[in-house]
Amino acid sequence: MKNMTFDVRPEEAGFSAAALQQMTACIQADIDAGKIPGAVMLIERNGQLAYAQALGRQSPASEPAMSLDSIFRIYSMTKPVVSIAIMMLAEQGRFLISDPVSRYLPELKNLQVGVAGTDEDGNAVLKLEAARQEMTIQDLLRHTSGLTYGIFGESLVKDCYRSQRVEAFDITNTELVKRLATVPLAYQPGTVWEYSRSTDVLGALIERVSGLTLDIFLEQYIFAPLQMKDTGFWVPEPKQHRVAEAFAQDPETGVQVRLSNVTRRPLFLSGGGGLVSTAADYLRFARMLLNHGKLDGVQIVSRKTLEFVRSDHLGEMPLARSGASYLPGPGYGFGLGFAVRLSPGGAYTPGSVGDYNWSGLAGTYFWIDPQQEMIAIWLMQAPEPRAHYRQLYRNLVYAALL
């Protein structure tokens, strides 16, 4: 894939060649200025590859140029993959997404909700109240489970996550579930969107229901059928020369950058953020989604399941967007693993009603615009400026449409 060929000239796919050249120049200028090490960008429209660029260096500490087959830590772009895996099991009748999670993971039954309060001296204390309803599998898929992350932001519940080492990397999915059972929920289940360990719990659920470890399940049912040959939870030694790396220190904020070690199989197979992949592999996954769950004769999920997945599942929850940080952002709802655009306006960037996306901590991002029959992928390894480049890339792509 180092010399990926275009299926059509940009104009044949409805893009301005001059605008795409301007996009290349814009990103190259930031690379030349030392803002990011490099990036890979792909755009496909109407089933035809219209743009593919690998810019900059694969690693700041070595000479090789970025390549279209460079391997990236995609972090939370793992979540859409695991969400689709869950829907595959639902299609097999292994469970209903309305089922309580505790039916399959009994450790998570009878959880309590942590509510911040004060004691007689005015000190902050965490009070506990019973959950009014159990989290469902649907709650896990749409991040309304009541779970949270301990690594983002501050709260008394997040303090509990850190003290109980909920987010340690030297544990299995089974151990993660056991530790989550010892900490309170951040919200009542089914009420508030909160970015969380929900998709990691989905990974544990896949293991419990299928009897397979998450890496084997995804390989057998998604990666092999879709010919995603470079996607997994670690990079085998013969491919490690293709791993993209970040600056040791962010050039603008000065923050030390620490990315996951992907040179060996991890103990923790994180369904929420553990995968590595390439632009070509993730393009095949996105093609399957855009093509109603099917690619090259292989049906991963049904057309109607895909419609269900990319529909907003928060609309009837009045408090859904009232949490500390609603990451889908203005103009977006959330489906079963994806942010989903609800209106032409309101968002920070152009798009179409019904387009859906997600991103990763180290700077990766993708979206699918069914109205435009378009897939766009952005891959870099630079955590600090990730929000800036998500918006910038999206602006530049839509600016290039004729």
Q: How would you describe this structure to a colleague?
A:
By secondary structure, this protein is an alpha+beta fold. It folds into two domains: 10-77 and 213-400, 3-Layer(aba) Sandwich (Beta-lactamase); 85-210, DD-peptidase/beta-lactamase superfamily (Beta-lactamase, 3-Layer(aba) Sandwich). 27% of the residues lie in helices and 16% in strands. The protein has ten helices and 13 strands. It has helices at residues 17-32, 78-91, 137-142, 156-163, 173-180, 198-210, 214-223, 279-290, 303-309, 386-400; strands at residues 38-45, 48-56, 72-75, 112-118, 124-130, 275-277, 294-295, 298-299, 332-334, 339-341, 356-359, 365-369, 374-379. Strands 2-1-13-12-11-10-9 form a seven-stranded antiparallel sheet, with helices on both faces. A two-stranded antiparallel sheet has the order 3-6. Strand 1 (38-45) and strand 2 (48-56) form a beta hairpin. Helix 2 (78-91) packs across helix 6. The mean pLDDT is 95.
